[in-house]
């Protein structure tokens, strides 16, 4: 089992920045692909970013490319999401997800591929 706890959410003005963190505990963090998803009220859970555990291969959703950056620190069992140039449409609950995988370069944009989820952290961007 892997437990995931997100932090760093809050209220920010449009154009501002936030950095989300996701602390993992339990099984070996370094053998997990990690992802960030978000869900706005009344909407589907949407892929934001993902990173593999080997080589740090990253993918981003089209709506956040060039503005968000995912990174991980295996020594700290933590994955980060740096969010810049925030827009009101980025307002959502942001969820961290993890996938146990023996393939170090595996990563996915699909919600159902992930095994573990955090409880989420609210991000609100005011105009």
What are the main properties of this structure?
seven-stranded mixed beta sheet, four-stranded antiparallel beta sheet, 0% helix, mainly beta, 127 residues
* Fraction in beta strands: over 45%
Annotation, overall tally of beta strands: 11
Shape: globular
Kindly state the mean pLDDT as a whole number? 95
Query: Which sheet architecture does the biggest sheet show?
Result: 7 strands, mixed
> What series of H and E elements makes up the topology?
EEEEEEEEEEE
Number of helices, counting only DSSP H or I runs of 4 residues or more: 0
Low-confidence stretches at least 5 residues in length (pLDDT < 50)?
none
Query: What is the CA-CA span between the terminal residues?
Result: 40 Å
| Structural class assignment | mainly beta
The radius of gyration computed from the alpha-carbon positions, rounded to a whole number of angstroms, is 14 Å
Bin the helical content: under 10%
């Amino acid at each position: 089992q892997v437990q995931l706890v997100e932090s760093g959410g809050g209220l920010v003005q449009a154009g501002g920045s936030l950095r989300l963190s996701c602390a993992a505990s339990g099984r070996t963090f370094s053998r997990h692909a990690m992802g960030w998803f978000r869900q706005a009220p009344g909407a589907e859970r949407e892929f934001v970013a993902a990173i593999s555990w080997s080589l740090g291969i990253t993918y981003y959703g089209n709506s956040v490319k060039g503005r968000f950056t995912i990174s991980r620190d295996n020594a700290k069992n933590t994955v980060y999401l740096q969010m810049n140039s925030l827009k009101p449409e980025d307002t959502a609950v942001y969820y961290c997800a993890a996938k146990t995988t023996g393939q170090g370069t595996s990563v996915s944009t699909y919600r159902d591929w992930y095994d573990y989820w955090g409880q989420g952290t609210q991000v609100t961007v005011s105009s």
